[in-house]
Each structure stands twice: as structure tokens, then as C-alpha cells.
């Protein structure tokens, strides 16, 4: 399936030049012309540079600064099948006939696959789109339609000009869809489009988006700048969803229905309309700003919909997700696909969000949002680097608090954004107080790169809570300090409220006094403080950094905690620990116990799988099993090894239809787990698709097996080797 296109680009010349270099890839250039005010400019020739994805237009003379030019290019291309650029997405009509729609996915560098353009984030331009498509189909782009002319088999629609934006946010959809519509408080039109079969399943997304837009407009103090926002559900989509300005594309299962995850994704994409679309990264190095903010703002966005939503729990889950993934690359790094295109890394989301939360808690929530409003309004329709954010925060912070601190936010930030991984704070009880040191230990892995510019030391904001007191304090543990001593006879809990992106390991004596403290004064400690303590204990027990009895001690103290989530987690830890101990005794029953642990989740994901049958494997699956129970029973039975093999084969393919994480889950039903182990321990197996799973517990189990049990740990230089300064803080009692 092919298409024809034409583009006209108006530009002002800023420096002397005799050629125009645009991005273009896999397009046939039919004609190219250029016009200037004197009408004496011509394109001598055009060449295509495949490796750089450039279209180079050589001019007949040198053009001087200040001249205005207009370039016209006509071109042709094929609708792709690889979910990049302008591509075909397939489904079936209610009648059973095949349905073919066309949609775009441009981030990061695929706009050039559809149209020659300046395809980098900081080349912002306004776009006016005119689409010609089969009469009867729906044609959508970023803006509202102005005029449609029907001419037999084809209809041409002209849409309003967009605001100034980056090319990766341009979007087009042509296909057979219907919509439901709502309007926000101030009258902004929101529609959710889906194929006719599924149009009744869009209500939750529609309502969530209306409330989220109202909430964000008020919070940021900037209205959405165009006339409408459309969401479209498509079947074949590379990412979960894409925030194209005014035309947000979702994978079907992330917009149809009533899953909690749908609300989360809808809010994430809407947050991007400000963080990413209005204010964009200068280059891909700052992609973490886009994804970190969209993730961070999802927490507050959820409160617009559900007043009881716990932002703290959301942020803690992001910290956990980040810590599991935070190995290979720093936030401020760019990775490339095999074909040379930029990869959007998963660490940008969870670590970006967790780092932004530290910034929020350092400057204070009110100051933070005031700074965010300034940052957005000062940089709208423009591009930013990290420093723009830090100076917006510093300006508000220093004005509002008369803060005498000498802390530079950008200096603090650099060690967090330029180094991979995160610090571990060791807290040791001495007769005078508690001594903190920092160190980092990391698994040695095949893709591991050492980013040690800062010596793997961090400027760490230490939030701590003194026993018997309900509030917490903030002190700084700078990277050039040898140790930080907090002088007090009382017990202290470090990383109170889980504001910080680091973990804490105490000595045995401290764990004992913390356990006593939690039992004596349970109401003085917040849900987040207790959860943080448990999470650090659990992960460090599995890496054998702490003794299991410390884990049991604290979990036991919290087993009947007033917060259900803390109570449940403490009890799970107690059960899991018991299971681990038993496992040592009865190695042979290991598989059975793992299956038991997963049974609830497994049936849940199986139901989801049935409601969205996948392509080939899905068909096989449906043909062979009547129910989820039957499937699990079959997998447990060694005679049906064929199913396990099918699963493994499919997990090894490049098919990224998004169900791999579900199928990975199902593997735990298999009785003979040699195949599963084969995958888990195979260093070349790509877990990216599986990592899309939001199930932290699942990831933890994979991680334990994949890394902790099989790889050595690397010690990084201790504080003594690196630095020599000691700081003492006294607490008056
Ligand atoms: Zn995003």
C-alpha cells in the first residue's frame, strides 16, 4: 500500500548556505523546488544520504542570511509494516472481514519515514495537514478539521494549523473508527475513537481524561492550546501509548475497558501535553525530563479522579521499579537501536520520576509546583536542558524560604543524572550516635558500563526520623564527606517517608532498636516510612547484605500494622521467608510452591489474555484450552511439553505484541521448569518485553533468579578510599 505526499516548508536563512539538509528515509523524492523573494533560486540536484537519513538539496547559488525561502517537495512512500513511521494496523470488522487502518508512530526518529522534514526535537514548526483518504474512513491529525471535500472515492480534509511543535509529535490516523465525546469544564472537546466493535468500552478513558485535563490546566496554569484532544485505540502499536499533541494513540488494551492501568496511561499521556509537547527536551539526552515528569505527574493526576489515591504508594512503586532497572545507563544517556534510531529507555520513566520527587521534597511541594508553573510558562513552545529546570527550582526556593543554603541544585542533580545506579547508605550505631557512610554495590553484568565520573558517590538528602518524634529532618550527606555522624542516643530511621532514591542498611543493633520502637510507638511512623524499611530489608536480605533474622524481626513488628498495605507486606515477607527456609530443606518441592504463590495472579492474567487473543500463539492457545484452569493444569503436566515449547519459541521471537509479559507469567505454571530456567539464565535473552509488566513481585523474582543468584557483586571504592571529611550533626534532646 502506497501513498503520495507533498510538503512545503517555509524557512528563514540564518547563515550563508548553498544547500538544505532535511531528514528523509525510505521515501521516493519525485520533485523538489525552492522559491525565494528574487525568484532566482533553483535546486541544482538532490541527493539521498541513506546512512544519515538525509535528503540534501544543493542550490544554484549561495543564499545570504535574512532571506526567506519556501521549499516544495513531492514524494511517495509505502505504508510500513514495522510499526514505525506511517504504518498499517490490522484488525477484524464485526462481520469478520479484515480491517486495515493506517497510523503513525514517530518518536523518536520516524517522522522522516513519512515526510521529509527537520526531524529533531529542537526544530519546532507549525504544521498544517491536509489528508486525502478513502471516502467513508475517518481521517485524524493533531488539530481539528476545518473543511472536507468529497470527490468520489476520496475525501480531502484540511485541518487547522498546529501550534509550534517538534516533528516527532505529528500524527495521522486513517481508518474505520467511531468515537464517544465529552467536553472539559471550559469546553475543550475530548473524543476517544475505537473500532465499532469496541466503542462501548471507552467510557472510563473518556471520563478520566476529562477530569485529568481540568486538573492539569488548573495545576499548571496553562490551558491546552488547541481545540481538541483525540485518543485513538489501535491494535498494533509499538509502545503502550504515544502523546502526539492532540492525537494520542493507545494500544487497545491500554484504553478499552476498566483496568486501573488505563487511567494511569491516559493521565501519563495527558501530562505529556505540557511536559514534552509544550516544553520539549533539547535533544534526546533529556528524554528523561519528558518521561520522568509524565510519570511523576501521573500521581497527582490520579488524585483529580480519585481523591483517596495515594501518591506516596505510587512514588514508592516507581522507586522500586527504578531500582530493579537501574544498572546499565545513567538517566542522561542516549541508547540506539540496531537501525540507528534512538531508544526510549525504561529507566527514564521510573528513575526520572523518583529523582524529580526528591527535588520536590528538597524544595517543598508548594515551591515545587510554583517553580513548575514558571518553568512551563518560561519555556513554552521551546526546548530545554536540565539546567532550565534546576534554575526554575532554585529561583523559587531561594525567594520563598530565604534559604541560606549553599546547595546548588544542578550540582546535586549531576551525580544523580550522570551516574547509573544509586547509593546504599549504611547506618551504624556507636556509643555517641549513628554514623552514616555511603557505598554502592552492583552486579557485574554483560551490558554493564562504568560511569564513574563522580566516583560512585552521591550528594544524598538524608531524611531521618528520631524515635519518639512524629516529624522528620533533612540533612545533607555530600559526596566528598567521609562519613556523617548524627549524635543522639535515640534510635533513628533513615529515608523517612521514602522521599529519597537510595536504600539503607543498618547494623543488627539498630534493627533491634527499630523493631522495639515500631512496636512501642507504631502510630508515630508513616505508612511510607514503614514500607520503605520493609522494601530495603527485603531486597538486601535477598542479596545477602543483611541477615534474614533482621528482616523477620522488623516484619514481625509490623505484622499487625494499622496500615493494611504495610500489614499485608509484612505478612507476605514472613510467609516468603518461611518458604525460602523450607525450600532449602525440600529442594524438590520448589516448583510446586512457586506455582502456589502465583495462582491468583496467573488466573487474572489468563482472563486478560482470553479477552484479547493474540495473533498466532493466541489462536493456538484458544484452540487448545477451554479455560485458564485447564491451561495451568496442562502446563503442569509434563506430557504436554509442546505447549511449553510453543511458549518458549514465541518468547524468543521478535514479536512485540505486548503479551510477552503475560506469557512469561504463565511459564510459572509449567511443572518442568527447565525451559523457564533456560530463559531466565540465558544472558542473551531480551527481557525488555517482559519488563513492561507492572508486577513488581514478578520482576523481583526474575531479578533474583537472573542476577542475584547467578552473578558476582562488585564492590565500589569505600568512602575511606575516596574522601576524608567527616561531618557531625548534634540532636538536642
Ligand atoms: Zn511517556
Number of helices: 21
Our measurement of the CA-to-CA distance between the termini, rounded to an integer number of angstroms, reads: 77 Å
The main sheet comes to:
5 strands, mixed
Low-confidence stretches: 583-615, 687-713
Written overview of the protein:
With 733 residues, the chain is α+β, with helices and mostly antiparallel strands. The protein is 37% helix and 25% strand. The chain contains 21 helices and 32 strands. The strands form 10 sheets. The protein has a 5-stranded mixed sheet, with helices on one face. Strand 4 and strand 5 form a beta hairpin. Helix 2 (260-272) packs across helix 3 (287-305), helix 3 packs antiparallel against helix 4 (311-325) and helix 3 (287-305) crosses helix 5. The longest helix is centred in the C-terminal third of the chain and has 22 residues, at 564-585. It is globular, with a radius of gyration of 28 Å. The site of zinc ion has 5 residues, from helix 2 and helix 3. The site of zinc ion (ZN) has 5 residues, from helix 2 and helix 3. Keywords: Aminopeptidase, Hydrolase, Metal-binding, Metalloprotease, Protease, Zinc. The active site is at residue 269. This is Aminopeptidase. Its EC number is 3.4.11.-. Belongs to the peptidase M1 family.
Amino acid at each position: 500500500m502506497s501513498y503520495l505526499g507533498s510538503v512545503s516548508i517555509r524557512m528563514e536563512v540564518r547563515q550563508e548556505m548553498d544547500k538544505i539538509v532535511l531528514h528523509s528515509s525510505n521515501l521516493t523524492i519525485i520533485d523538489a523546488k525552492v522559491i525565494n523573494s528574487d525568484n532566482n533560486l533553483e535546486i541544482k540536484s538532490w541527493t539521498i544520504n541513506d546512512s544519515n537519513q538525509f535528503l540534501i538539496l544543493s542550490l544554484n547559488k549561495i543564499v545570504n542570511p535574512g532571506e526567506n525561502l519556501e521549499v516544495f517537495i513531492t514524494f511517495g512512500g509505502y505504508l510500513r509494516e514495522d510499526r514505525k513511521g506511517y504504518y498499517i494496523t490490522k484488525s477484524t470488522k464485526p462481520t469478520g472481514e479484515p480491517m486495515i487502518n493506517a497510523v503513525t508512530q514517530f518518536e523518536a526518529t520516524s517522522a522522516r519515514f513519512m515526510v521529509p522534514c527537520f526531524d529533531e526535537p529542537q526544530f519546532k514548526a507549525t504544521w498544517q495537514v491536509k489528508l486525502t483518504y478513502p471516502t467513508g474512513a475517518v481521517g485524524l491529525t493533531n488539530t481539528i478539521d476545518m473543511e472536507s471535500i468529497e470527490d468520489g472515492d476520496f475525501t480531502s480534509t484540511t485541518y487547522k494549523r498546529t501550534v509550534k511543535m517538534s516533528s516527532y509529535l505529528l500524527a495521522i490516523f486513517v481508518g474505520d473508527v467511531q468515537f464517544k465525546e465529552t467536553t472539559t469544564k471550559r469546553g475543550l472537546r475530548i473524543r476517544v475513537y475505537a473500532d465499532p466493535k469496541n466503542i462501548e468500552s471507552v467510557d472510563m478513558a473518556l471520563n478520566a481524561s476529562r477530569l485529568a485535563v481540568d486538573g492539569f490546566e488548573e495545576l499548571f496554569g496553562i490551558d491546552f492550546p488547541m481545540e481538541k484532544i483525540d485518543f485513538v485505540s489501535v491494535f498494533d502499536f509499538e509502545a503502550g501509548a504515544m502523546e502526539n499533541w492532540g492525537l494520542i494513540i493507545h494500544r487497545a488494551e491500554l484504553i478499552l475497558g476498566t483496568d486501573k492501568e488505563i487511567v494511569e496511561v491516559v493521565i501519563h499521556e495527558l501530562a505529556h501535553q505540557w511536559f514534552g509537547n509544550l516544553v520539549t527536551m533539547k535533544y534526546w539526552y533529556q528524554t528523561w525530563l519528558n518521561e520522568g515528569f509524565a510519570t511523576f505527574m501521573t500521581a497527582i493526576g490520579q488524585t483529580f479522579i480519585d481523591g483517596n489515591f495515594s501518591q506516596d504508594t505510587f512514588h514508592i512503586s516507581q522507586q522500586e521499579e527504578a531500582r530493579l532497572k537501574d544498572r546499565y545507563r545513567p538517566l542522561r544517556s542516549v541508547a540506539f537501536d540496531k537501525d540507528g534510531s534512538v531508544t526510549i529507555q525504561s529507566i527514564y520513566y521510573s528513575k526520572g520520576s523518583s529523582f524529580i520527587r526528591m527535588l520536590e521534597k528538597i524544595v517543598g511541594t508548594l515551591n515545587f509546583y510554583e517553580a513548575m508553573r514558571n518553568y512551563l510558562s518560561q519555556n513554552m513552545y521551546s526546548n530545554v536542558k536540565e539546567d532550565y529546570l534546576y534554575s526554575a527550582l532554585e529561583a523559587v526556593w531561594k525567594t520563598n524560604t530565604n534559604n541560606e543554603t549553599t546547595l546548588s541544585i544542578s550540582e546535586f542533580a549531576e551525580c544523580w543524572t550522570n551516574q547509573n545506579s544509586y547509593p546504599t547508605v549504611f547506618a551504624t550505631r556507636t556509643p555517641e550516635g549513628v554514623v552514616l557512610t555511603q557505598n554502592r554495590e552492583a552486579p557485574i553484568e554483560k551490558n554493564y558500563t562504568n560511569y564513574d565520573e563522580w566516583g560512585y558517590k552521591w550528594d544524598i538528602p538524608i531524611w531521618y526520623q528520631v524515635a519518639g518524634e512524629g516529624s522528620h529532618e533533612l540533612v545533607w550527606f555530600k559526596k566528598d564527606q567521609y562519613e556523617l555522624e548524627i549524635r543522639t542516643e535515640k534510635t533513628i530511621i533513615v529515608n523517612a517517608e521514602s522521599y529519597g532514591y537510595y536504600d539503607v542498611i543498618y547494623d543488627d543493633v539498630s534493627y533491634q532498636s527499630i523493631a522495639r520502637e515500631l512496636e512501642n510507638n507504631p502510630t508515630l511512623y508513616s505508612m511510607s516510612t514503614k514500607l520503605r524499611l520493609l522494601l530495603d530489608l527485603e531486597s538486601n536480605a535477598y542479596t545477602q547484605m543483611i541477615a534474614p533474622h533482621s528482616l523477620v524481626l522488623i516484619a514481625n513488628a509490623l505484622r499487625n500494622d494499622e496500615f493494611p498495605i504495610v500489614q499485608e507486606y509484612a505478612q507476605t515477607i514472613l510467609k516468603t521467608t518461611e518458604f525460602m527456609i523450607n525450600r532449602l530443606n525440600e529442594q524438590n518441592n520448589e516448583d510446586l510452591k512457586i506455582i502456589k504463590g502465583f495462582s491468583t495472579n496467573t488466573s487474572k492474567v489468563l482472563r486478560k489474555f482470553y479477552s484479547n487473543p493474540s495473533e498466532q500463539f493466541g489462536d493456538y492457545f484458544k484452540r487448545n484450552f477451554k479455560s485458564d484452569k485447564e491451561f495451568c493444569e496442562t502446563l503442569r503436566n509434563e506430557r504436554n511439553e509442546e505447549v511449553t515449547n510453543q511458549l518458549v519459541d514465541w518468547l524468543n521471537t521478535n514479536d512485540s505484541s505486548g503479551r510477552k509479559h503475560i506469557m512469561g507469567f504463565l511459564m510459572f505454571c509449567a511443572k518442568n521448569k527447565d525451559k523457564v530456567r533456560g530463559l531466565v539464565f540465558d544472558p542473551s535473552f531480551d527481557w525488555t518485553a517482559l519488563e513492561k509488566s507492572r508486577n513488581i513481585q514478578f520482576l523481583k523474582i526474575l531479578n533474583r533468579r537472573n542476577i542475584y543468584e547467578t552473578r558476582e557483586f562488585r564492590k565500589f571504592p569505600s568512602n575511606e578510599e575516596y574522601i576524608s571529611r567527616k561531618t557531625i550533626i548534634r540532636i538536642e534532646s
